[in-house]
Amino acid sequence: MDPATSSTHSPITLNINGEKHALSVDHRTTLLDALRERLDLTGTKKGCDQGQCGACTVLLDGRRAVSCLQLAVAAEGREITTIEGVAEGDRLHPVQQSFLDLDGFQCGYCTPGQICSAVAVIEEHAAGWPSAVTDDVRPEAGPPPLTADEIRERMSGNLCRCGAYASIVQAVERAAATVRSGGASAVESAPSEQSAPSKEAVA
Ligand code: FES
Ligand code: FES
Fold this sequence. Notes:
Elements (H helix, E strand, L loop, with lengths): L8 E8 L2 E8 L4 H8 L18 E4 L2 E4 L12 E3 L12 H8 L9 H16 L21 H7 L10 H16 L23
Parallel strand pairs: 1-5
Antiparallel strand pairs: 1-2, 3-4, 3-5
Helix pairs in contact: 2-5, 3-5
The structure holds FE2/S2 (inorganic) cluster (2 copies).
Protein name: (2Fe-2S)-binding protein
Pfam families: Fer2, Fer2_2
Organism: Streptomyces andamanensis
């Protein structure tokens, strides 16, 4: 039997940051471990490994997902964006630039997940998705003002042990303004449904 295919292993192709990666994985391998241990994409961090901290956040088809709760085999056929793919060449995404300019980090361990989340938050907000603190959730009300409370709620799945939250909120606020004013968003993520902006834990 082909060692790549067995009752426990399958060959898969993952589309990550626009590049295809073929590998054979144990069916129990998480996307996080495939990224870090098999593909050397170590920008995505492992914190709790149980869906609690957000350090492992990536984008799947433009939506946030905690990669520690996503099986690699279930990610086949999806557009996966990791922190390594957020910038466009040498041009940082506005979220990355804002985190740098406003010191949105201390040790930096949570930062890749924070940035991936923030990229999606800005898209979700622009698409009119309400959050748990949105007052008027009627579709015709349009996007609510992206207040600090809105940002805190929408980013609440990303924990920061250094407590850099005040700067993170400011960085997301500024990045959203940059994107709104025409600053390019390098990641194609355009949610179109009026649905809750919750993190996707498993497929
Ligand atoms: S490592 Fe903490 S949510 Fe995935
Ligand atoms: S910057 Fe250290 S955990 Fe967030």
